[in-house]
């Protein structure tokens, strides 16, 4: 079994950018995800998302409140205790973010899709399969 989640929706506010003491970039944002729609009844979930390094840098550069995104990542449920009461917080740690609407930046640029994993270009491909 794998922990994989895919959500699509709109950012509820601008991306919050941070940097760890070790120099790694990360950002946080919340995605409003429509759960279902039956007639006039609809439910919306507000899903906290965290992204790291290059994905975080690009999200901070191109996304803003209202941006439509597709986020692929893993679900994390963190527990903590505050004032003697146990709490839990759920978030998605993004491994990929696809920008699905207009974004801040040069209109001539290609719409970026970001993966946390490196990709191999044709020039780098030596033809040897890793398996």
Largest beta-sheet details: 5 strands, mixed, barrel
Overall spatial form:
globular
- Taken as a percent bin, the fraction of beta residues is over 45%
Task: Please give the radius of gyration in angstroms.
Answer: 17 Å
First-to-last CA distance? 21 Å
Helix content: under 10%
Number of strands: 7
Q: Could you state the oligomeric state of the chains shown?
A: single chain
Structural class: mainly beta
Number of helices, where a helix is a run of at least 4 consecutive DSSP H or I residues: 1
Summarize model confidence as the mean pLDDT. 83
Could you name the ranges where pLDDT drops below 50 across 5 or more consecutive residues? 116-125
Order of helices and strands: EEEEHEEE
Query: Order of strands across the biggest sheet?
Result: 1-3-4-6-5
Q: Can you tell me about this structure?
A:
- There is one protein chain.
- Helices cover 8% and strands 53% of the residues.
- It contains 1 helix and 7 strands.
- Residues 116-125 have low confidence and may be disordered.
Q: TL;DR?
A:
It contains 1 helix and 7 strands.
List its salient traits.
1 helix, 131 residues, mainly beta
Fold blueprint:
Layout: E1 5-11, E2 16-19, E3 25-38, E4 41-52, H1 53-62, E5 68-82, E6 85-99, E7 113-115
Parallel strand pairs: 4-6
Antiparallel strand pairs: 1-3, 1-5, 2-3, 3-4, 5-6, 6-7
């Amino acid at each position: 079994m794998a922990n994989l989640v895919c959500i699509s929706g709109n950012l509820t506010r601008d991306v919050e950018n941070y940097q760890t003491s070790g120099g790694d970039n990360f950002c946080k944002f919340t995605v409003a995800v429509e759960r279902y729609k039956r007639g006039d009844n609809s439910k919306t979930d507000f899903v906290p998302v965290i992204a790291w390094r290059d994905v975080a840098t690009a999200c901070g550069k191109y996304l803003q409140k209202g941006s439509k995104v597709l986020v692929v990542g893993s679900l994390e449920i963190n527990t903590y205790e505050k004032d003697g009461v146990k709490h839990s917080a759920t978030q998605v740690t993004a491994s990929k973010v696809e920008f699905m609407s207009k974004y801040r930046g040069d209109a001539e640029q290609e719409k970026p899709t970001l993966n946390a994993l490196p990709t191999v270009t044709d020039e780098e491909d030596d033809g040897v399969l890793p398996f």
